[in-house]
Description:
Structural class: alpha/beta
Shape: globular
Oligomer: single chain
Strand order of the largest sheet: 2-1-3-4-13-12-11-8-9
Amino acid sequence: MIAVINYGAGNLPNVVRALQRVGAELTVTDDPHVIRSAQAVVLPGVGATADTMASLRQLGIAAVLPEVVASGTPFLGICVGMQVLLSESEEFGPHPCLDIIRGTVRRLPENAGKIPQIGWNQMQIAPAFRAHPLFAGIPDGADVYFVHSYYCDVADPAIIAARTDYGLPFPSVIIHHRLAAVQFHPEKSGEYGLRLLANFVNWSGASARRA
């Protein structure tokens, strides 16, 4: 069973529908005990990192997530659900995040053009990750859908599984052991977004009716 964390994220219903469409058996929860015991965990997200962190702390989830990831439970963070994994964020002033992945959430550069980036852009899969199960059936350069003003500046380049260019090449996918996170919205990314979610279900070993 996959636990999809409910802390009030606006994209939660769309993520749930997309996971159900690829056959995932899931439960939507804000209970830290359920999250701790789940077979896999998905953290969706839209909005600001500070608001997300405040909600996760209030629910007692922020204290559980580092433990869940350290235990080897398969984990997928989506958009802001990726950003809060880092050490800190500069959005609306510096503040700490979960510190699961070393790095800082920074604003996209002004030379990128329109901020936020809203729309389709390509993800360039790093050669070392092209055979990773998360990318099965997804070509290098696949178009995926973004809505964000900030990006993850991670300390370890070896965990950057894919990059996207918008004023600078930023990590659009990170993979570290059993943790995966994506800056784009797979639930809005058509065929390849659904494929990635199905791949996560298979990679996680979580039960599914079909994937």
